[in-house]
Amino acid sequence: MFSFLIIFVLNAFYLVPRLLFHKNYLSYLASSLLTLVLVIGISVSFRNYITPTQPLAMPPMELGPGMPPMELGTKMPAPQGYRLPAQPEQKSIFMNFIENLIIAILVLAAGTAFELVLKWLNEESRRKNVEKEQLKTELALLRHQVSPHFFMNTLNNIHALIDINTETAKDAVIRLSTLMRYLLYDTAHGQTSLKKELEFIGSYITLMQLRFSKKVTITVDVPENVPDIQIPPMLFISFIENAFKHGVSYQSESFVKFKLEVIDNQLICTIKNSKHKKKETSDLSYSGIGLTNIRKSLSLLFEKNYILNIQENDKEFEVQLTIPVYENKMLGH
């Protein structure tokens, strides 16, 4: 057993990491065979030296009262109906070596498999960490992409409102400040409260309304009592941006509808917008990042615990995102 332990340790912690993982396959094979032969050979030889093979001996047979015992080698016919018991054959050194070698090969294979599985787990963990870092970068880029054109247009609208409606202009400045504070500080921790996210969305939609006429109907339907739920920041902004970008026409009546509800530990967000012929576009035309990256981000955040449904027809485009949530924590984060 000690020889098998030596083989396992040498293979798992020396031969596999230094030879097999560095693609020195011939060196690994030769070193493994040499280790097997040496360790098993020394083990079998040492055991045979300590307990050498002894000739089989049969104890004297008691023939009966008053009769001397008969020693082995004395010729005497066995009593009628009596059969001498079969004697076990002792294994040779070569057979012991072969049997131990077979077991040692299995031990060697077990050590190699152990190291391969351990390496795969480490690589998988490293891959997930890299993907999470990439996701953080993508989300950071998304936050920055919200700002340039949106802020420029909003400031222009506020400038025009100062002389027309001072109170509305003041409210717009406050909402813009709230939105910027959220982008700069509240999104830096990787998660935020649903209440703050809804305040951000409300400010964003209100500022977007400054750009459109009364022909654009914007509807926001959110719970009156917002539950204390933690979610990833800016989870819905890509869909909302897309709805305003592709669902609003300055010539025709348009609409954008945002609805959010919590049902049985599930957060369901539904965003609908009108669709116009000149604005026809596929569901890959999201502002910021495409649908593929959105799905990838959702998979990294929630694994398979989310549902993203996208439906469209000639007049309407709809996105519905369902994620699992619990009080004071987010599943999958």
Distance between the termini: 46 Å
Number of strands: 8
User: In the CATH classification, which architecture of one domain applies?
Assistant: 2-Layer Sandwich
Q: Give me the secondary-structure category.
A: alpha+beta
Q: Secondary-structure element order, as H and E?
A: HHHHEHEEHEEHEEE
Taking Cα atoms only, what radius of gyration do you get, to the nearest Å?
39 Å
Residues in helix, %: 40-55%
Q: Could you please say which CATH topology of one domain applies here? A: Heat Shock Protein 90
Main beta-sheet annotation: 6 strands, mixed
Number of helices: 7
Q: State which percent range the strand residues make up.
A: 5-15%
Contiguous runs where pLDDT drops below 50 for at least 5 residues:
279-289, 329-333
CATH class of one domain: Alpha Beta
Shape by Cα distribution: rod-shaped
| CATH homology superfamily name of one domain | Histidine kinase-like ATPase, C-terminal domain
Integer average pLDDT = 76
Descriptive notes:
The protein is of the alpha+beta class and 333 residues long. Among the domains are: 1-50 and 92-132, no CATH class; 215-330, Histidine kinase-like ATPase, C-terminal domain (Heat Shock Protein 90). The chain has helices spanning 2-20, 25-50, 93-164, 166-186, 194-209, 237-247, 291-302, and strands at residues 192-193, 216-221, 230-231, 254-263, 266-274, 307-312, 316-326, 329-330. α3 (93-164) packs antiparallel against α4. The chain is rod-shaped and about 110 Å long.
